[in-house]
């Protein structure tokens, strides 16, 4: 089973690495980082580099696609190379998925037309403008269409565990959850816009603007 995670300049690290750490534990799975060319791709702040081991042309029939997000997605909406690749491989995947603003790239490729989907809370309007219908859920599934989207950053781990359940079984997903000791007990309860107070939302907006 080949699981492809496309990378691009200024992607968000956990969007890619969180699902990778879950899915690479699934027996028989081969996770490949794919991009325009082989070699290192830097994250949105430039502090971390991850290597693409294959080009889009070399990965033409993955079983699963996990598209990460990051500020770099904005420049790639409708991009001929990545959109063309998504359009070409999706008809043959078991599941095509996204994390965070990776949903914008699925939408830009026309894969979310008329479907409900989720993304990072800061990209709701962009997602809706691309033909999807945003819903404020952590993971949104359209199993007949083989599409799954997840919200911001950390939700990619939730989605990856759900993927393991769909690809294998519930016990496999629970076993991997145990292996990574994924037992969230955050010290604060401000992980969604609905829960965050005004001061928290203001500070988050300041941090987000500083990354542009």
UniProtKB/TrEMBL annotation:
Task: For the region Disordered, give the residue spans.
Answer: 189-212
A single GO BP annotation from the record?
A: regulation of DNA-templated transcription
Q: What would be one Pfam family of this protein?
A: DJ-1_PfpI
Question: Which intervals carry biased composition (Basic and acidic residues)?
Answer: 195-212
Q: Which residues form the DJ-1/PfpI domain?
A: 2-165
Q: Which Gene3D superfamilies match?
A: 3.40.50.880
**Protein name in the entry:** Thiamine biosynthesis protein ThiJ
Give the originating organism: Mycobacterium asiaticum
What phylogenetic lineage does the species belong to? Bacteria, Bacillati, Actinomycetota, Actinomycetes, Mycobacteriales
């Amino acid at each position: 089973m080949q699981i492809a995670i496309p990378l691009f300049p200024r992607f968000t690290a956990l969007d890619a690495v969180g699902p990778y750490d879950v899915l690479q534990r699934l027996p028989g799975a081969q996770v490949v980082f794919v991009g325009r060319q082989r070699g290192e791709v830097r994250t949105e702040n430039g502090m971390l580099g991850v290597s693409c081991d294959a080009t889009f042309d070399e990965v033409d029939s993955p079983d699963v696609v996990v598209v990460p997000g990051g500020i770099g997605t904005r420049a790639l909406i409708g991009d001929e190379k990545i959109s063309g690749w998504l359009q070409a491989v999706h008809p043959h995947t078991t599941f095509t998925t996204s994390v965070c603003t990776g949903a914008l790239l699925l939408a830009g490729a026309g894969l979310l037309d008329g479907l409900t989907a989720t993304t990072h809370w800061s990209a709701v309007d962009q997602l809706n403008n691309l033909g999807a219908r945003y819903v404020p859920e952590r993971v949104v599934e359209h199993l007949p269409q083989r599409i799954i989207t997840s919200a911001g950053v950390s939700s990619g781990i939730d989605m990856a565990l759900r993927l393991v359940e769909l690809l294998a079984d519930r016990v496999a997903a629970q076993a991997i959850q145990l292996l990574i000791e994924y037992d969230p007990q955050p010290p604060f309860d401000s992980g969604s816009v609905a829960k965050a107070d005004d001061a928290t939302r203001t500070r988050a907006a300041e941090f987000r603007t500083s990354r542009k």
